[in-house]
Amino acid sequence: MDFDLPFRMQHGFDALYGLELTEVQEGRIAARVTVRDELKQPAGLVHGGVYASIAESIASLGTQLGVAPRGLVATGLSNQTSFLRPITEGTIHAAAVAKHRGRTTWVWEVEITDDQGRLCVLTRMTVAAREPR
Amino acid sequence: MDFDLPFRMQHGFDALYGLELTEVQEGRIAARVTVRDELKQPAGLVHGGVYASIAESIASLGTQLGVAPRGLVATGLSNQTSFLRPITEGTIHAAAVAKHRGRTTWVWEVEITDDQGRLCVLTRMTVAAREPR
Amino acid sequence: MDFDLPFRMQHGFDALYGLELTEVQEGRIAARVTVRDELKQPAGLVHGGVYASIAESIASLGTQLGVAPRGLVATGLSNQTSFLRPITEGTIHAAAVAKHRGRTTWVWEVEITDDQGRLCVLTRMTVAAREPR
Amino acid sequence: MDFDLPFRMQHGFDALYGLELTEVQEGRIAARVTVRDELKQPAGLVHGGVYASIAESIASLGTQLGVAPRGLVATGLSNQTSFLRPITEGTIHAAAVAKHRGRTTWVWEVEITDDQGRLCVLTRMTVAAREPR
Questions:
Q1: At residue C85, does pLDDT exceed 90?
Q2: By the 8 A CB rule, do A108 and A59 touch?
Q3: Distance from CA of A133 to the nearest CA of B (A)
Q4: Does residue D78 have a pLDDT over 60?
Q5: Which of A133, C3, C10, D64 is the most buried if burial means most Cβ atoms within 10 Å?
Q6: Is C16 a residue whose pLDDT tops 70?
Q7: Contacts of A61 (CB under 8 A, 6+ apart)
Q8: Beta partners for B20?
Q9: What percent of chain C has a predicted confidence (pLDDT) above 90?
Q10: Residues B15-60: tens digit of each pLDDT
Q11: Chain C residues touching residue B102 (CB < 8 angstroms)
Q12: Closest chain B C-alpha to A12 CA, distance in angstroms
């Protein structure tokens, strides 16, 4: 990909919630999102959907980068997010690591931490690699 | 809750992506979101995180309404979303049904359909009912 | 399939834990297992792995029956089991319903109940339909 | 716990499928199971339920050991197993690591490998820590 890091996403939902890529490597993608009131649920915590969105984006991007050379496209199959500890301020830090790069599916584990480095969210993303329609 | 349906969420992340409640019953909550470019991922489909967010919000709200009379608060534990069919336009329709209302956890199945009524996304939400901190 | 129902599985792990098919229809499979001490965990409840095994078997069988006419084979991708209520005696009743029958993956919801008809376990099974190796 | 390692489980379902503990530490439990025909599904691979069972047992045991000093008991809430690569012979090796040790829930990641050290299965286990009934 042809951009400098950190890279703030410019389009679509990633731009809306504020995804910023900080590391893009083969099998490892990291990103961050600055907490703001617009990302919270009614109790004042970051909304669980924000974490799921970040994990979805970076695991899909990582798969897309990996399978594009074979002419395939990445499509999310499932997103399993566990909420361990709330975040209420500062920055959301996410790192996705590819645990399996199969012929038809890739599986990523995404860890999300707060500014103190505490593990707050775990996501397992399964992404299909398919022929483009 | 004291509002008329349909009710467009006014604050936080739910307002940002555009959640509108259409039905609020004991053990059943329905909602919808109008598709717009700001909700899409790079390939032009609705971003998977939008579906996860909708499911998270309505299952949490449903649990909150159910456990508030006991003085408890609802906190999401996990969100397991499977993507079956993409949505690219029109309206996202979601309906959450409580499958289990336990002493400490509630489990919801959320089905998301498109304007043609086709099942597009399944989410299982597990929500804890806890003493407020 | 050429057998009479109920059909007690004769081989492999399904025979070991005692799976008995009670209904085999397009998109719906039901089965049961008789509780015995050999199926329990240390606290005296049916072991969570027994439920996961039942769901795995019947969703895979249902997919296999559905995709075999196209020359494909069914392979489990993921098994997401939530434990709602313990079973300690009697019979474990399971019913799997196909929620999605896609070109490359099928998704099933499996509900497991006790002799009183109470919902005890929910499993979502994702099964791939692939060319045989 | 008062036993020598490796320790072959003597009772219930763990004995039936053949669970053998190989390492028991605070926040980390490892175990193995020898593959035999009785553990296979119809296509000749180890049955997915066997992996789910192993993960369930060792994550529950690890939680039980951790919360017993507080007078609590461990109860499985959910088991999310992803199948990456089949095992057909040799030994199934499993290692569970506690990613979160909360007041009310523990979350474990379990990795299952074959004799060649290849990652074959990933399980995330969520275990509740509760007052005994």
A1: yes
A2: yes
A3: 12
A4: yes
A5: D64
A6: yes
A7: A21, A24, A29, A74
A8: B8, B32
A9: 97
A10: 999 999 999 999 999 999 999 999 999 999 999 999 999 999 999 9
A11: 84-85
A12: 4
Averaged pLDDT score across all residues of chain B: 97
- Chain C residues within 8 Å of chain D (Cβ atoms): 11-17, 37-43, 47-50, 52-54, 56-57, 60, 73, 75-83
Q: How far apart are CA B67 and CA B63, in angstroms?
A: 6
- The fraction of chain A above a pLDDT of 70, given in percent, is 98
pLDDT for the residue C2: 65
Which of D51, D50, D34, D25 lies closest to D124, judged by CA? D51
Active-site residues of C, by number, are: 56
Q: Is D56 a catalytic residue?
A: yes
**The pLDDT value given to residue C3:** 76
DSSP string, A34-86: E--GGGB-TTSSBPHHHHHHHHHHHHHHHHHHHHGGGT-EEEEEEEEEEE-S-
Residues B9/B24, Cβ–Cβ less than 8 Å: no
- Look at the alpha carbons of A63, B50, D82, A21 in this order and tell me if their dihedral is positive or negative: positive
CA distance D48 to chain C (A): 7
Reading the block at residue B119, the tokens are 């099942």
Count, residues in chain A:
133
d(CA C41, CA D13): 6
How many residues in total does chain B contain? 133
Cβ D105–B77 below 8 Å, yes or no? yes
Mean pLDDT, chain C, whole residue set = 96
Q: Which residues of D touch C120 (CB under 8 A)?
A: none
Compute how many other C-beta atoms are within 10 angstroms of the C-beta atom of residue C18.
18
| Encoded amino acid at A106, one letter | W
User: Residue A2 pLDDT more than 90?
Assistant: no
Residue type, C124: R
pTM value surpassing 0.95: yes
Beta bridge partners of D109: D97, D124
Residue B2 pLDDT exceeds 90: no
Nearest CA in chain A to D79: A80
Within 8 A by CB and 6+ apart from A21, the residues are: A3, A5, A6, A7, A9, A29, A30, A31, A58, A61
CB atoms within 10 A of CB D69: 7
- CB count within 10 Å of CB D10 equals 8
What is residue D82's three-state secondary structure? Answer: strand
- Establish whether this prediction's ipTM goes over 0.90: yes
Phi, psi of B67 (to 5 degrees): -100, -15
Contact A124 D119 (CB under 8 A): no
Q: In this complex, how many residue pairs, one in chain A and one in chain B, have their CB atoms less than 8 Å apart? A: 129
Burial of A36 (0-12, 13-18, 19+ CB in 10 A): middle
